[in-house]
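Question (not urgent): is this output format expected?
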Amino acid sequence: MPALWVASQDPIFDSTDLSCLGLNPSRPVTFAVTTTKNVIEHLRAKHQISPDGPIAIGSTPSQQTIVSMFGNAPPRIIFNEEVFKHLLLQWIVANDISFRMCEDSFFRRLCAYLAACQPDYSGVYRALPRDGGAIKRYILTWYLAMKEEVKAKLYGTLAKIHFSFDMWSGPNQHAYQAIVVHWVDGGGRLHAVLLSLHWFRGAHSGLNQADHLWRTITDYGIVPLVGMFNVDNATNNDTALVVLAERLRAAGYPSFDPVADRL
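Got this back:
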């Protein structure tokens, strides 16, 4: 059992005590810090630790030192390259890490150290991408796989799919259009997913917005499931929904009303 130490102030004797919680947190063993002799004896007797390091627990072949018990334990799972890549991409995307981080010598040394700690971890260094371009390719592959999952969920809905979209400019002065879908699955659970975050080039006209809306809807194969829209009352949004209604009618789905089906 490892030792866990907590320092506390004794208000009666105006001194500092050390309490070991390693054996029983509800009944700590307390020592005054004016001497270390009792602390050393406690560590040696109860935790098999000396000032020089861990003490062998016994002399029989079945008994081991603390280091051998914990330092060389085999990994509990087998290294999986695809799982490693997935976790690496999650870390990069969620924390806005540069794709070139995988080229950083210090980061690669860290991974090399992990690979050297256990024989089964040697695949970590082999699986580590060599350059930022590989990270970009991995993210694109991951995106396409997740896109197919979203498509499958949208196809499985029993009701209409509803939309919201908006435009804004980022700090880099680029304009973006976000399209979000909302639907209820067969179990009655509400879902909301970002379908598109489009770098919008050209005028923010209703026609241009409708073009991208239509491309996104047809790309996901959900033309028959278009329901209602929740958008700002800007005039270009009015035009976008009118154009979208015309394209839905031309595709054989005339029921969408750009006024009645807008919140």
